[in-house]
Design goal:
about 300 residues, alpha/beta, TIM Barrel, 12 helices, globular, lyase, Aldolase_TIM, Dihydrodipicolinate synthase family protein, DapA-like
């Protein structure tokens, strides 16, 4: 099972209806918008997907429904975020059975694992599955960093660990990874506000957040920079930055779901304990969204590049 680690892969939000059930109709509306924009993969059950609130059955439904809906146009990935190695191995097996083409994988949840434990955890899961794996390295939010030395061990023993979602928020880490591993470890930038910078430094692609509400702008930035049309990419990126900053915020799920409402690609329904934005916080996010929509740039025909 192969996957090309490049391009824009949205970390899609999970849609809920007014009685807190999966809203597959709205979910598929958003997926169709992503496909129409030309994304290169779909990532389910990440932070934006409210993974920690989803039941096992809901994760499996999302995987199966997405695989059936995209019909092979792009690969479907699902995130593994479990507390035990046993559960992570079981989740990987279910993902493979349900048709996922690859896994995104966080270190163990809740328990702050040490370096040796983290390597052992990733190794055990990788050896249990045929699926390619992208390690989600986000020490800012999840408090465990996968160092270059740890990647060295993982890459030597686990050929199906193929990529990293680079979310350390240190753009120079892109160069460190390339200098250390060359083409062996593909780099998918995972921080919206450092996306273009990371791509220009050599990252292969972008696991994106605001793409959920603005798919065409996101893909356009990637495609334009890829062919060296940097000024055009920069113009869109500079317009986009106030929106992208909504992603590096504890309320990123609520922020992005509110943006999806404004672009017709979602609802504000979140799963408790999350609640929709209110008060001055809501007013601030609405102002950013509305100001951005008023100055929304014209997008070049990036599909013809």
């Amino acid at each position: 099972m192969g996957i090309v680690w490049e391009g824009v892969m949205p970390a899609v939000t999970t849609k809920f209806n007014n009685i807190d059930e999966l809203d597959l109709r709205m979910f598929k509306i958003n997926i169709d918008a992503q496909l129409d924009a030309g994304v290169h993969g779909i990532v389910l059950g990440g932070t934006l997907g409210e993974a920690s609130t989803l039941t096992d059955d809901e994760k499996r439904i999302l995987t199966r429904e997405t695989v059936a809906h995209v019909k092979g146009k792009v690969p479907v990935l699902i995130n593994i975020a479990e507390q035990t190695t046993k559960d992570a191995i079981e989740s990987a097996k279910k993902a493979e059975d349900d048709g996922a083409q690859a896994l995104m994988m966080l270190p163990p949840m809740r328990y702050k694992s040490g370096d040796r434990e983290t390597v052992a955890y990733f190794t055990a899961v990788a050896k249990s599955t045929r699926l390619p794996i992208m390690v989600y390295n986000n020490p800012v939010d999840y408090k465990v960093e996968v160092s270059l030395e740890m990647f060295e061990q993982l890459l030597q023993s686990c050929p199906n660990i193929e990529a990293v979602k680079e979310s350390t928020r240190d753009v120079s880490n892109v160069t460190r990874i390339i200098n250390r591993f060359g083409n062996r470890l593909k780099i998918m930038t995972g921080v919206d506000t450092l996306a273009l910078e990371s791509l220009l430094m050599g990252a292969n692609g972008w696991i994106a957040g605001l793409v959920c509400a603005f798919p065409k702008e996101t893909v356009a930035i990637y495609e334009l920079q890829k062919v060296g049309r940097i000024e055009e990419a920069l113009k869109i990126y500079r317009w986009f930055l106030p929106l992208l900053e909504l992603d590096i915020n504890p309320k990123l799920v609520q922020n992005i779901k509110l943006a999806e409402v404004y672009t017709g690609l979602g609802t504000e329904n979140v799963r408790a304990p999350r609640l929709p934005l209110s008060g001055k916080e809501r007013e601030h996010v609405i102002q950013i969204i509305e100001n951005s929509l008023k100055s929304r740039p014209e997008i070049p025909d990036y599909k013809a590049i």
